[in-house]
């Protein structure tokens, strides 16, 4: 079973585990969280360094990966729809488990454009072992680097585990671990030549995040529009060490296969999260018992990848 299959199985089992604690699927999707705002997004493409490169040049980079893209940060709008945070199936929120929550999120599509350096190689046609090794250890940079344009499009379906999860009457704070399925398209273009095109591919992504929110209807008690509304700040970082390479197959000038390519993204988001009831049912916090008819804002959030 490959990594993609395992990831899909984990997501499916997680969804089933959450749904079995609900009397119906309708109850599970009774409330959704709509999040929108601005995000500062950064994407980078990296390759894993070979063992001999790490041995000969350990001080060039302290990590096992090497970025082959220029710094690329874009500010734009962000939108997502997510389920209400839920307790763990069969466990609830007793004792230690009150600090655990889970949810599912679908994010809006993203498009990234930028420059890749020296991929699949620097373009120098060296065949002798020593020049080839030197080009691996010390690839040309700056204006000497061979540059290609990339266009990367994706959206994600994510399952998030929030721990620790803290909330009060007017705020929440949590750390998140998210397992996502990313559906992506990728184009690599060098001058007027299209090096590679990938369409409608799926890959698993693991991300970690930090999230804080504050309830706005606490400040605007007379406003019906602000009811069950939070302002939030979120940071999300992809974990490249658990990533699967992109489904792209290129060769170097000397005919050898190119290094496997990995996408790495990070986001900083500022936005508004609104809780919406899809059925005629009061929005309840975890402090309100199931039989109460009192309507209160929901404590919690789901905007992570």
Task: Give me a quick take on this structure.
This protein is mostly beta strands and 305 residues long. The chain has helices at 3-19, 25-28, 51-56, 129-137, and strands at 31-48, 65-67, 73-83, 101-107, 110-117, 147-167, 171-190, 193-215, 229-238, 262-277. It has four helices and ten strands; from the N terminus they run ααβαββββαβββββ.
Name the descriptors.
305 residues; mainly beta; eight-stranded antiparallel barrel; 4 helices; 10 strands; disordered C terminus
- The count of domains is 1
The main pleated sheet reads as: 8 strands, antiparallel, barrel
Radius of gyration: 23 Å
> What is the arithmetic mean of pLDDT?
77
Low-confidence stretches: 57-62, 285-305
Shape: elongated
> H/E series, N to C?
HHEHEEEEHEEEEE
Q: What gap, in angstroms, lies between the N and C termini?
A: 24 Å
Percent of residues in helices: 10-25%
| Number of extended strands | 10
Q: Which sequence of strands runs across the widest sheet? A: 1-3-4-6-7-8-9-10
- Our count of helices gives 4
Helix/strand-derived category reads mainly beta
Strand content: 35-45%
Walk me through what this model shows:
It is a single chain. The protein has 305 residues and is mostly beta strands. The chain has one domain (3-277). It contains 4 helices and 10 strands; from the N terminus they run ααβαββββαβββββ. The chain has helices at residues 3-19, 25-28, 51-56, 129-137; strands at residues 31-48, 65-67, 73-83, 101-107, 110-117, 147-167, 171-190, 193-215, 229-238, 262-277. Strands 1-3-4-6-7-8-9-10 form an 8-stranded antiparallel β-barrel. Strand 6 and strand 7 form a beta hairpin. It is elongated and about 65 Å long. The relative contact order is 0.20.
